[in-house]
Amino acid sequence: EPTVRTELMEQIPPIAIFLQESRPKFPTAFFEYLMPIVVRYLTDVNNQVRKAGQEALLILLEQDLVAQSDIENKVCPILLDLSAPDSDDEYKVEAVNIICKMASMLSRTTVEHMLLPRFCELCSDGKLFQVRKICAANFGDICNAVGQEATERLLIPKFFELCSDSVWGMRKACAECFMAVSYTTSSEVRRSKLSPLFISLISDTCRWVRQAAFQSLGPFISTFANPSSAGLYIREDGTLSIRPSTQDVNSNSCQSSNNITLMSSSTNAT
């Protein structure tokens, strides 16, 4: 029964945490018995079971309970198969969504070597606009996961494609994550490539795209500031913040006005 399998998936994370805490007694129980179940349920015929499996996997990754070898040899291959060009549409949409969500939890090497090539392919998926929409909405997170070099070499060309996509929702998603993408690039790329691209979004024929671009204008401009002098920094949750000055901290009079938070598109994307 699918409900039984779904309930089983929901119990996997707490069981895994218990086994982790009791590792001397159960050194290999999770890897031998539970992890294969999680991987198998990612391809279950029932979508509720698959969803429960995906949620369990993300919790396990967030808690750092999955071994690097299992990630590279079991999890990533399954996701690459599910997101292949000839894969079922529903499976592909789910796979690209889980790839984007887990990117921030994996090592940069794993993301760049195993998942980034497929992500770039999915950005150009001509069959399913839902796949491209997920890629656009999470583009900033992927850039942050792989760093500046891979972003400028592989991702910026794909970002240009998505920013000129025929579906306005794609262009809107790009406008919303523009600050996160810009923050990952060099000042030269920011000035010579991203600035003209942003102008095209702020002049878009669709008012929803223009509105999203105007809302991202301030955050995008802030990425040109010198962090050491402006005090700008990106928090772990993807928000751009301003550090209070020493005088404000001591006086505590203007601290609240300096704690301005500008939401990154990657956290606002839907």
What does this structure look like?
- With 270 residues, the protein is mostly helical.
- It has a domain at 1-66.
- It has 17 helices and three strands.
- A three-stranded antiparallel sheet has the order 1-2-3.
- The longest helix is centred in the N-terminal third of the chain and has 20 residues, at 2-21.
- Residues 245-270 have low confidence and may be disordered.
- Residues 246-270 are annotated as: Disordered.
- HEAT repeats lie at residues 115-154.
- InterPro entries: ARM-like (IPR011989), ARM-type_fold (IPR016024), HEAT (IPR000357), HEAT_type_2 (IPR021133), PP2A_Regulatory_Subunit_A (IPR051023).
- This is PP4R1 phosphatase.
Topology of this structure?
Elements: H1 2-21, H2 29-41, H3 47-62, H4 68-82, H5 89-102, H6 108-123, H7 129-137, H8 139-146, H9 148-163, H10 168-176, H11 178-183, H12 187-202, H13 207-222, H14 227-230, E1 232-234, E2 240-242, H15 246-251, H16 255-258, E3 261-262, H17 265-268
Antiparallel strand pairs: 1-2, 2-3
Helix pairs in contact: 1-2, 1-3, 2-4, 3-5, 5-7, 7-10, 8-9, 10-13
Compact summary:
With 270 residues, this protein is mostly helical. It is 71% helix and 3% strand.
Q: What are the low-pLDDT stretches, counting only 5+ consecutive residues below 50?
A: 245-270
Order of helices and strands: HHHHHHHHHHHHHHEEHHEH
- Major sheet description: 3 strands, antiparallel
- Give me the secondary-structure category: mainly alpha
Report Rg: 21 Å
Tell how many strands the DSSP assignment holds.
Answer: 3
Organism: Oceanites oceanicus
GO molecular function: protein phosphatase regulator activity
Keywords: Repeat
GO cellular component, one term: cytoplasm
